[in-house]
Amino acid sequence: MNKKVVVVVGGGIAGIEASAFLSYMGFEVVLVEKENTLGGHVLNWEKLFPTMRYGSEVLDFLLQGISPKVNVYTCCEVNSISKKEHQFFVELSNGENFISDAVLVTTGYDLFDARIKEEYGYGIYENVFTSADLEMIFTAKKTLLTKQNKVPLKIGFVHCVGSRDEKVGNVYCSKVCCVTAVKQSIEIKQIYPDSEIYCFYMDLRMYGMHFEHLYKEAQEKYGVHFIRGRLSECFENVDKSILVKVEDTLTGRPLKMNVDILVLMVGFVPRKSTKKIADLIGLENGRNGFFKTKDQHTLTNVSNIPGVFFAGCCTSPKTITNTITDARAAASTIASYLLHHEIDKRTINLAP
Amino acid sequence: MLEEGKKRIWAEYQKAVPDNNYYFVRSCIRQTFFPGSEQAFIRIIRNELGKDIYETPYHTTCTGIGYHSDIIPFETTMTVVARQFALMTEAGYSNYIPSCITSFGLYTEVLETWHHFPEIEAHIRENLWKATKREFKIPDNLSHPSDIFYHFRKNIAEKAKYSLVDIESGQPLNVVEHIGCHYSKMFPGKGIGGAEYPCVLIGMIEAWGGNAIDYPERRHCCGFGFRQYIVQSNRGYSVSCSRKKFESMKPYQPDLILTNCPGCPMFLDRWQYVISEIEGKTYGKNNQGIPVFTYEELAGLILGYDPWELGLQLHQIDCEPLLKKMGIKYNPSEKYLGYNREYIGKPEITKNLFHCC
Amino acid sequence: MTQYFKTLQEDIRFREGLSACINCGTCTAICAAAEFYQYDPRQIVDIVQSRNELEIEELLKSDTIWYCGECMSCKTRCPRGNTPGLVIMALRTLSQDSGLFIESEKGRQQLAIKRTIGEWILKTGYCVSPELINPEMHPEQGPVWKWEIDNIRTLMKKMGANYQGDGPGALRKIPEEALSELKSIFDITGATQRFEKIENDSSKKAEEMGLKLTDGLDNPYMQYIYKHNSQNHHNNQ
Amino acid sequence: MSFGFNILKDRQIDFDTNDLSLARFLSLYEPSFRLCISCGGCTATCIANHHSGLSLRKIFILINRGITADIKHELDNCMLCGKCVIACPRGVNTRGLILKISELTKNSEI
User: Which of A216, A251, A257 is the closest to D61 by Cβ?
Assistant: First the structure.
């Protein structure tokens, strides 16, 4: 009997980890990544919450699972997929064709384009940064300075940029931004102990293990300030500092403040190519534009098309920890599907 | 500030502005305080741009000020708006051009309401029929006169005799713009440039040679606030809002404030006087104050119209220092002459503001 | 049992202005009224969405709902697509319809607005016109305005206006037919009724306060509501 | 001349000019002061709150915003029973802070 083949679309951490497990389970794996290197967004994150471990360490660990048994195609995209009976005919942009028995979609997410929140002036006011910009500065081992090369003494963090916001069409929570703001605040305090940092938030969602601990440390050890109010608008002053306007909802009064740097905590949005891939094979998108899983509680790696599976952030925003777990779950779900395990036949009344 | 970022947004918010055949509707506040501006608008549209513009004596207020000071029910306002549309329909026009920003915002609100709730439109049609036996068509286009000047800003520039430049230094003038709140804050897609970075006035400033400057309280309301100005004891709110704007624009040393709202130019002008009386504080160089113009006054000036026919003598802040800076030729002695060139006396001199003559 | 919330929900502006508020304060942060008055649109919306009839009644009787300037800056920003300004407009309508507006200093001012703007609309066809902006009631208009009013005819002619004339143009006399159409619209759409309600409730209040209220603007009650400021509105703490 | 109205003072909390000295002092003197998350547990349990409206949550916030004029007057209502210490989920030494704030406001008439 021929070895069963799985095509994995997307070489971020979900694609890497799922490919690794699937290959060690004995399947032939084709991993397709459109960039020239595997790793996805994690390549751009220097230190990770809540441990402050380097992102590269996690990636190194995951890549140890990619043995020669995984056929990796970088700089490559899926041109077409068609299904005949139980098999998928997959054509890649490099001209190669595969017949696969299952497809795993791990296309991940895009960061929210902060320019859409016009009133925050990203791309207009020079000292408005995004959380991703900050991370790039850290990863490149550059010094964080204002665009006028001044040491920033007052820094503001704006939570929920592109998340929980009907104005931009994203009503969901991106999950990782709250704790990322806390992490980045601490990192700045470590570089500039005399700086003052203010986080503007609606709710602080410290749901993960140790997140609350990190939050408490930011307050107690580093003196980071938290102001409950969503940023309404900001503006560039004549000296290029940024004037922010927010309601301090706990005193019930409007509040203004000039900061040297304003950091926008950008959320997750469905990757641009999500729609394209959905159209290729007829996958369903959910209300928020991420791929729709068959069931919200149980069939979280299963799509509306038998043989097509999901892992990672292509179905919803997730932390790195959750993404890795999800990838492993997808691998075992695919294995039971391909090997016709009894467990694959379980049913549930699908949630509306 | 990174201009490319703004240009990207401007490109996103460009609305359709008709090229001709305008049905013009007066503004309560503008015709009272700036009759020369409405006159200049019609003159420029007809004589400089050669377009057709029509107005009927039968139109009235849209009731906007009454509606926004809460004495007029929404249903009444919608029916009055329907009557205005009926007059347009009867005149055979479909491009509705309300001179007032409060009206522009209100018409937009009413049209949006009808669009989303057709049963309300049907009810208002019944009301109108009952009250006036009139019927109406929804306008094909609703544009504000400032949209039209933005649309033709380059044509106006081609005919201009002056530009927004300091003739001594050759440097462009620093112009601050103030957009009426109801222009695009309620419906960002209805205003040129959107709600956060409207470019309807910036486009004119730049096309006419000036340097548009952006300052932190640009988006702040002038403080009209309807009932907050209408009732005397509330006017502290109104003056304080304007004051906030003046303080914020001060570091940029503006030569001029350009507005597209009916009330704003009057308030930004008068509150400078009030602040100078109450606090002894003045803005602009040498206690001159910062002149506040409507876009028609500015267009008229660069086209070489007589400043006293435009009505610049009706401003509390003297315009002469700016006219001199721009090298505009004018006759100072005609400022205080009436229609038949009779001398009509001068306004009383104020305590702290500079007066030119 | 009062039915304030239910009545508010009948107002299209209320339904459009409020789905569920998350109390983020985006509105208050840029609210001009919140900068100068003891006023927080977020809290008002929160009270209203609590559906607490007693608290809503307190609002309807309070100065609070009259602080908003209806600039609508709040509409641009709300992450839930709400418009606190529209909620305020619905509350003000209800405060007048229920007669509770006379219970507050700022609410009582509605009579002053009705007797100026409201009556001017029916008399002239416009909300304002020069002869109605009396320099004595409007000292802030400055000496230039007094000069303009003193020379109104010749100045208006110079500006190209058709002051009180027939035919089109700025400040023209609006034809009687147009004014009578306006009046019949007011009669059938509720404006006349609201005007009467404001007048009647104000008369009662004037009597209760021992201030004489007669026609026009020059009477003690009118002058009081137009000029009186208890200075209790701006507490900075 | 009188216009019948006044220019109003801005109610905005201005973080560029407000006096944060008390907040800074307390953060050093009693670092648990920084840990308050404004949950209101203290206020909900406070006996004095029932008769005087005293709100420790609000007082802490006001100190952090540099608005300290009325604090002494409000804290006079506290009976130092210490229930708030037990209620606090973040381990803030509320009673100790009240004593210190009272002492400081008494001495310097903040």
Answer: A251
Q: Are residues B183 and B141 in the same domain?
A: no
pLDDT exceeds cutoff 90 at C200:
yes
pLDDT per residue as tens digits for the range A192-231 = 999 999 999 999 999 999 999 999 999 999 999 999 999 9
Query: Residue length, chain B?
Result: 357
Query: Residue C28 belongs to what domain range?
Result: 4-103
pTM (predicted TM-score): 0.95
In a domain, C131, yes or no: no
Q: Looking at A228, A247, A268, which one is the last position of a domain?
A: A268
Q: Which of B23, B44, B60 to probe by mutation at the C interface, max C CB count within 10 Å?
A: B60
Whether residue C47 is found in the same domain as residue C97: yes
- Provide, as residue numbers in chain B, all residues whose Cβ is less than 8 Å from the Cβ of D1: 277
- Mean pLDDT for B117-132 is 98
**Measured between CA atoms, how close is A256 to chain D, in angstroms?**
5
- B356 in a structural domain: no
Say if residue B183 is in the same domain as residue B106: no
> Quick one: tokens of D39?
């949950």
In a domain, C90, yes or no: yes
Question: Which residues of chain A have a Cβ shorter than 8 Å from any chain B Cβ?
Answer: 115, 118-119, 121-126, 233, 235-238, 243
Q: Pick C35's closest partner by Cβ from D1, D12, D67.
A: D12
Flag if A119 and C77 touch (Cβ within 8 Å).
yes
Residues in chain A: 352
* Residues of chain D neighbouring C34 (CB-CB closer than 8 A): 11
Share of chain A residues as helix, strand and coil, in percent rounded to the nearest 5 = 30, 30, 40
Subunits next to A (3 or more Cβ pairs <8 Å) are B, C, D
Residue C235 domain-assigned?
A: no
CB contact under 8 A, C121 and B225: no
Is the residue at A348 inside a domain? Answer: no
Hey, is the C-beta of B178 within 8 angstroms of any chain C C-beta?
no
Other residues' Cβ atoms within 10 Å of the Cβ of residue D54:
21
Mean pLDDT of chain D: 92
Summarised one tens digit per residue, pLDDT across range A74-97 is 999 999 999 999 999 999 999 999
Say yes or no: ipTM exceeds 0.90.
yes
D interface with A, Cβ–Cβ below 8 Å:
11-16, 27, 31-32, 34-35, 37-38, 57-58, 61-62, 64-65, 67, 90
Q: Is A167 left (phi over 0), alpha (psi -120 to 50) or beta?
A: alpha
Asked whether residue B100 carries a pLDDT value surpassing 70, the answer given is yes
Distance of CA A89 to the CA centre of its chain: 29
Looking at beta carbons, which residues of chain C come within 8 Å of B195?
Answer: 76
Interface residue of C43, C234, C235 to substitute, partner D, most D CBs within 10 Å: C234
Q: Which residues of D touch B277 (CB under 8 A)?
A: 1, 3
**Domain assignment of residue B161, given as a range:** 153-334
C-alpha distance from A113 to closest chain B C-alpha (Å): 13
CATH of the domain at B72: 1.20.1050.140
Q: Within this chain, do residues C122 and C209 fall inside the same structural domain, yes or no? A: yes
Question: Of A268, A298, A315, at which residue does a domain stop?
Answer: A268
Same domain, B136 and B165: no
Q: CB atoms < 10 A from the CB of D91, how many?
A: 11
Residue in B closest to A121 by C-alpha: B5
Residue ranges of the alpha helices (H) in chain C?
Answer: 4-9, 12-17, 26-29, 32-36, 41-49, 53-61, 73-77, 84-97, 105-108, 110-113, 119-124, 142-150, 152-158, 176-189, 191-209, 220-227
**Cα C135 from Cα C138, distance rounded (Å):** 5
CB contact under 8 A, B28 and C96: no
DSSP A292: P
Note whether C237 contacts D70, CB cutoff 8 Å: yes
CA distance A7 to A308: 10
- Statement to judge: residues A151 and A259 lie in one domain: yes
The total number of structural domains in chain B stands at 2
If chain A, 352 residues long, is cut into consecutive pieces of 10 residues, what is the mean pLDDT of each piece? 88 98 97 97 95 96 94 96 95 96 98 98 98 96 96 98 96 97 98 97 95 96 97 97 97 96 98 90 92 95 97 97 98 97 91 70
Residues C50 and C140 in one domain: no
pLDDT tens, position by position, B43-66: 999 999 999 999 999 999 999 999
